[in-house]
Amino acid sequence: MGSSERTERLAASPDLFENRVLNFFSRVHPVVPALIFVPVIVVLIWLSVDRGLSALGTVGLFVAGLAIWTLSEYWLHRLLFHWTPKFKGGDKINFIIHGVHHDHPNDKMRLVMPPAASIPLALIFFTAFMLIFGSPSGYAAFAGFLLGYLVYDYMHYYLHHFVPKSKLGKRVREHHMRHHFQDHNYGYGVSSPFWDHVFRTVPRSRKADRKS
Question: How far apart are CA 58 and CA 50, in angstroms?
């Protein structure tokens, strides 16, 4: 396979369904998540303060929500995105959820999560946050969680279409590219590789490759 053909394959955007409407909702312009969730974050912060949460409490819970996102990102990627159901049609379900991204990692319209998936997931997590933290604490914590999600979405897009200039940025990009092109059983953290170190799923480094 020539380099131009490989580039075209990686950037392709295949249909996932026979239905045109479903295919439409399986793709999303990168600006859409921000248009949906930035106003929600603002409203959640306003609600937390308006209902009696102190500024310090709001900031603390917001940061806690960010931290919870990083762990959720890791396990969603590891357990859900790389889940292959052991029944007929399981491979197709896996391909729709995440396999298409591994086959076509530079598809610009599938690098951020479509609202058809992100909104139901957000509602599930919001319910969990409110049950655990209550009101108004849950509003501030979930606002941080949503910001973490947006950071993940846009960092993911950036890592696939740009080359970071900083040393840290290059390390994060290499971490994710090794997940794609070396071994997808490692490197589940995208916006925060921290949990890969905790759970021992860090991809092999170039230095390790040279030693083997």
Answer: 11
Q: How many domains does the chain have?
A: 1
Q: Does some domain include residue 198?
A: no
Rounded to two decimals, what is the model's pTM?
Answer: 0.86
203: in domain = no
How deeply is 89 buried, as exposed, middle or buried, from its count of CB atoms within 10 A (0-12, 13-18, 19+)? exposed
* Residue 128 belongs to a domain: yes
> How far is 34 from 211, CA to CA, in rounded Å?
43
| Alpha carbons 187 and 182: distance in angstroms, whole number | 10
* Structural domain includes residue 178: no
The per-residue pLDDT for range 28-60, each reduced to its tens digit, is: 889 999 999 999 999 999 999 999 999 999 999
